[in-house]
Amino acid sequence: MTFDTPQHPTRETDAAATAGPEGTLPQEHPGTPGEEVIGVRHGMFGSGGTGDTSGYGRLVRPVALPGGSHPPYGGYFDEVVAALRAALAATDTALETALEKVVVFRGQLTLHVRREYLVAVAQVLRDYAALRFELCLGVSGVHYLEDTGRELHAVYPLMSITHNRRLRLEVSAPDDDPHIPSLFDVYPTVDWHERETYDFFGIIFDGHPSLTRITMPDDWRGHPQRKDYPLGGIPVEYKGARIPPPDERRAYS
Questions:
Q1: DSSP 8-state assignment for residue 216
Q2: Apex 213 CA angle, 211 and 215, nearest 5
Q3: Where are the beta strands (DSSP E) in 57-132?
Q4: 198: DSSP letter
Q5: How far apart are CA 178 and CA 151, in angstroms?
Q6: Which residues contact 240 (CB under 8 A, 6 or more apart)?
Q7: Which helix (H) or strand (E) holds 168?
Q8: Closest Cα to residue 118, out of 185, 176, 20, 63?
Q9: Cα–Cα distance between 52 and 74 in angstroms, integer?
Q10: How far from each other are the two terminal CA atoms of the chain, in whole angstroms?
Q11: CA–CA separation, 50 and 57 (whole Å)
């Protein structure tokens, strides 16, 4: 979906905003206009609207991401998007070229940026007088296993101290090409945050001055916060030592 896809306020839209971390809907609602359903979760809990609270009804819940919002966005969001459009135009870049979509969801403005334009957009957001997002509060990794072609997401929350405003930049990359440009040159504070995201999710931040593991041992295999990382019963491997998983250790009780 593009950032100018219209959304119509409905009862389902209100339900999506309160349905869970991903804004998902109960099974009987196929989704609101503009939503992107990227998978289905099966399990005992986490669904609503079926009347079954026992957990034995084989509850099914679609996983949906909010679609692009349609202006006017409300509040200062319209001013920010208009200023970004003007600033990018001064660099001969159209807003539609740099962004995949604009999302207003749960009172937050998120700009979904194409990864090849991430540094340019961040530079404009920091330096343009009407924007002045001087502070990057870090970067968080997300792994959507079913979101084929863009499984890995990096989310940068930005704050304008000058204008007392906030927004988020979100950029995606596929599992088979997990490269995203580093924002270290624009926001040096992301140094360790990008290293941590690389450590846990395997996102490679091109241009980072020292992209090494920050928590796991240097020779650790895999990235523990990916959704396809095995849980439990994993042998711990260090240089020169191996600790068996808990279910293989000797019990003394």
A1: S
A2: 145
A3: 59-65, 99-105, 108-113
A4: H
A5: 9
A6: none
A7: strand 165-173
A8: 185
A9: 38
A10: 57
A11: 9
Tens digit of each residue's pLDDT, the chain (253 residues): 444 544 444 444 444 343 333 333 333 334 445 778 887 776 655 555 555 555 555 667 777 888 888 889 999 999 999 999 999 999 999 999 999 999 999 899 999 999 999 999 999 999 999 999 999 999 999 999 888 899 999 999 999 999 999 999 999 999 999 999 999 999 999 999 999 999 999 999 999 999 999 999 888 888 999 988 876 666 666 777 777 776 676 666 5
- Which amino acid is residue 201, in one-letter code? F
**Residue 161, both tokens:** 């101290």
Q: Which residue has the tokens 């999506």?
A: 16
Q: Whole-model pTM?
A: 0.74
Q: Which of 186, 219, 215 is nearest to 200 (CA)?
A: 215
